[in-house]
Every structure is written in C-alpha cells, then in structure tokens.
Hints:
The chain has helices at about 10-20, 25-40, 65-70, 70-80, 80-90, 95-100, 105-115, 125-135, 140-155, 155-160, and strands spanning about 50-55, 60. By secondary structure, it is mainly α. Strands 1-2 form a two-stranded antiparallel ribbon. Strand 1 and strand 2 (about 60) form a beta hairpin. Helix 9 packs across helix 10.
Amino acid sequence: TRLINGIGTLPYSERLDRLQLTTLAERRIRGDLIETFKILNDKVDYGQHLFKMGRSRRNLLAHRKLCNSLPKEVAKVNDSFIPERVRPYWNDLPKYVREASSVDMFKESLEHYKTNAKLFNPGNFWYVSSVVLEKIEGCNYLENKLKFNDFLRDNPFIAKKKGINIYS
C-alpha cells in the first residue's frame, strides 16, 4: 500500500480504509475458512483427514490427543496448522454460513455475516484486524509516523529504496 500515489505516507489503517482492504491476518483467516469449507464439503480432493468433527457434524474439534503426546515445542508448531488456526473461527460461524450450498454462497454468506453482525467480539474472524492494527499503531504511532514522513521527505532516496511513494 506504500507504493500507491498519495497514500504512501498515511497511517496503515487509513491506507487500508482508503483502498477498502483488510489486514493480511484477516485475509489469511478468511482464506482458511474458505479452504475449510471446501474440504468439509468434498469440493476438493485433499485434506479430509485434517479435521475432526463433533457428533453433530457442526463443530470442529481439536486434535488434543495427538498434541498431548508430543513435546511442548512440537505441539506449539501444531497450533499453526490450518485445523487449529481455523477451529475457533469456524465454530463461531452461524449455521447458515457453514451450510452454504456452494463456495460462492459460502463467501457471500461470510461477507453478509461480517457486514451485519451486531456484536463485535474477539471470536469473530475480523476482530483480528483490530488486534493487528492496535499492535502496529500503538502508543506514539502518529507522532513517530510524522517524524518518519519528514525524514523520508528529506531523504527521498531512502523512501525509494524502501518502496514508499512520498509524492502525491
């Protein structure tokens, strides 16, 4: 987003807003949810062994038996794989989203749910964006951003090297 004329020096959240984008973390989770939908509904020929479903066939379950027998370091790595990354977000989705008839309907239902959800709770996948932006744009962010922008204007060769467009 830094390369686009006129917005290269704006705060990250403002650049995302102007371009109508979400954070990379949110896009990753959304992609994981779409991939999970494809796997669970046999739309693809891979990954069916990755997920363990509850008796109701609605919720994903953790593979804790496997993790309990592994060393702590290996179990921590396991948490970064798609079944563990996606489980809490999948289980929080309403039934109408999870039971969509096609991939496109799933995407539309997911967007509808995101747009119309009244509650903003940490269980929703789009909450990740606010957490990421809070970490990036924490204390003194704007003050430091202004100083950095002044530095880049005084040293355009550095801006060019970093791929930041400082011109409107």
